[in-house]
Here is the input.
Amino acid sequence: MQWFAEKGHAVTGIDRSSEAIDAASNFGEAVLADIENSPWPLMNGILLRQFEAVIVTNYLWRPLFPVIAQSVAPGGILIYETFSQGNETVGKPSRPDFLLRPAELLVAFKSLRIVAFEEGFLQNPPRFVQRITAARSDLRDETDQAPKLYPL
Here is the structure.
């Protein structure tokens, strides 16, 4: 959050840790919520709040994949990186519930336009990850045939 806030972006963060929320509140909207066991906290009335960019790192709760995808505004992007299978050989997390299956992010976010995808091993610190960058088509541009590029 800090990096984006310092670049002039409005930011919103969610965490179940009050310590993390206290630290994040210096940079923007910080929401204390247990998103695995409580209703989704980012709503505008009955509608999901949408964002120009949704960034998820080192977190996996598969039931939220549809909510995360729907939180990307038309013309917006999703950047998602977390641990994948193989990580159990080098450290934590090691439980299969917390590790993505091969190409799982491609399937989970197939409703978005995939801009980039990577999976594999990173050295420092040693870990297995998957990364995806995906864009939601701008409703005004759905008839355009040329793909749009979204700067990251």
